[in-house]
Write a structure and sequence with these properties.
Blueprint: H1 10-17, H2 24-33, H3 35-59, H4 66-76, E1 92-96, E2 113-117, H5 118-128, H6 139-144, H7 156-164, H8 168-187, H9 190-229
Antiparallel strand pairs: 1-2
Helix pairs in contact: 3-9, 4-8
């Protein structure tokens, strides 16, 4: 049983059902302060993608292969891997069950790649960006473990699942069913999952070194190049304040 009714009108129903709020000031402040981190994270992603390419070649299975695509559809259909809602062309995202970042160190390999709705993809980032998980050992398990019973009041991920399923018993049932589907899916690619788990400590050590090196390089190089330009800012000095 899907938590949402299928149909083309679902998009409008979704917007009414999950009210959106946006803090422009907060978004501007966050975006301004993360430029150097974005560069480091991009290099980390490139590094993980290169490892993923070599793993897929060695294992003889590509994420883009027809067999793998069939395996994804056979287990999840054309629904979100997490919430089981119908997917739409403009509201779907390639999803890494173990997040492809410096904390989760997930790879773009068979068994770790599926499709989710954009809302779940965005919501899961809270778990993926935690240095240490408390609810589970992986990002996808942690995301689906926010059933409202183990987190302090005000947990945004628990609140998200409550918006999806208002009934508490129904919510726990659907979250548990999602876990079962993911476990079933990953069993079909056990050798890739095991390789990734075994290699994760060594990869993570190098990922952290790459991230720190990139941060230091970006900071020093940007400061050096900016200083070399020796701009004249005298014409910008003013006491004027514009609201």
């Amino acid at each position: 049983m899907a938590p949402w009714v299928a149909g083309r009108r679902r998009s409008d129903e979704t917007r009414r059902w999950l009210p959106m709020s946006f803090d422009s000031a907060k978004a501007l402040k966050t975006a301004t302060g993360r430029a150097k981190s974005d560069v480091a994270n991009k290099l980390v992603s490139m590094f993980l993608h290169e490892i993923s390419r070599r793993v897929s070649v060695a294992g003889g299975v590509q994420v883009s292969s027809p067999d793998y695509l069939r395996a994804v559809v056979n287990v999840f259909g054309h629904r979100c891997v997490y919430c089981n809602r119908d997917l739409e062309q403009d509201r779907a995202a390639v999803e890494h069950l173990d997040g492809m970042n410096r904390f989760r160190v997930g790879l773009h390999v068979p068994g770790n790649v599926a499709v989710s709705c954009r809302r779940c993809n965005n919501e899961k980032r809270r778990d993926d960006q935690k240095q240490t998980l408390t609810l589970a050992s992986t990002g996808w398990e942690s995301f689906l473990a926010h059933d409202g019973t183990r987190c302090p009041k005000g947990c945004k991920t628990c609140d998200y699942w409550t918006l999806v399923w208002q009934d508490e018993r129904q919510k726990r049932h659907f979250l548990a069913e999602s876990v079962k589907r993911v476990v079933k899916f990953r069993k079909g690619f056990a050798r890739f999952i095991k390789w990734s788990d075994d290699a994760r400590p060594a990869i993570q050590h190098r990922v952290e070194a790459l991230y720190r090196t990139c941060q230091d390089f970006a900071t020093s190089e940007i400061d050096k190049l900016t200083s070399e330009l020796n701009f004249d800012f005298s014409d910008l000095k003013t006491n004027e304040v514009r609201g």
